[in-house]
Amino acid sequence: MRELSQGDFDILRATENIVDGIAAMYGEHTEVLLHSLDVRNPSIVKIANGHITGRAVGAPITNLALMKLNSGHDVSEAYLTKSPDGKTLRSITMIIRNAAQQAIGLLCINSNVDAPFQSVIKSLLPGLMTQNDKLPSPETFARSNDEMMQSSIETIRAKVMADDSISPSKKSREIVTQLYALGVFDLKDSAQIAANGLDISIHTVYRYLRELK
C-alpha cells in the first residue's frame, strides 16, 4: 500500500454508487463495501447493509482482504467466511486500480447464506410486486416500437381503470396523459396505435395531445 493521490480518491468516490447499486440489486442480505488502500488509513469508505458484519465507514481493512490483495488476482474466487455473530458469508473481493494499474481500493461483497430462504426471495423481488399483483410488468422488454406501445398502453390502462378516483369519462384522457409523460408519442404512428388500443378515434388522441402541449 502507499499514499493515495487526489486522483485515486476521485476514482474511489466515483465507485461509491456501485456499492449502492449492487446492494439494491441483491437486497438486505448482501453487504457491499469499498475499502480505501491509502496506507495512512486503510479502511472502509463506503458500505451498504453493514448490519451483516456490524461494520461502518472507518472500520479497518481485514487480514483476509489484505491476503486477497496479494493473491495476484484482481477478482477473487468466491469464498466462505464467518461474520462476528456466526453467520456464514459467501464473499468475493475485487481490486480497484488507477490508470497506472496501482491498487487503490477493494470492492467486497458478502452475502449471508444463512438468511431464511423466504426472506432472501422477498428482498430480491421489487418492492411493489406482490403475489396478488396481476398488473403487467412496469418495464417492457419489447422487440419493436409497436410492441412497446401496446405493452405501455396495457400497463397504464390497467392502472387507470383500477383507480376509482378517476371518473369513467376521464379515463381515456388520463391514459393518453400518462403515455405522453412517458414520451411514447415521439414514436412513429404512436397516435394511431394509441387510438386503436384505447378504442377511441385518432382525432380524440390528437385533441388530448393539443391540450397537453
Architecture overview:
By secondary structure, this protein is of the alpha+beta class. It has two domains: 6-124, Beta-Lactamase; 145-212, no CATH class. The chain is built from seven helices and five strands. A five-stranded antiparallel beta sheet has the order 2-1-5-4-3, with helices on both faces. The longest helix is centred in the first third of the chain and has 21 residues, at 6-26. It is elongated and about 70 Å long. Residues 131-136 have low confidence and may be disordered. Residues 153-210 form the Transcriptional regulator DauR-like HTH domain.
Compact overview of the structure:
Residues 153-210 form the Transcriptional regulator DauR-like HTH domain. The chain is of the alpha+beta class.
Give keywords:
213 residues, alpha+beta, Beta-Lactamase, 5-stranded antiparallel beta sheet, 7 helices, 5 strands, 40% helix, elongated
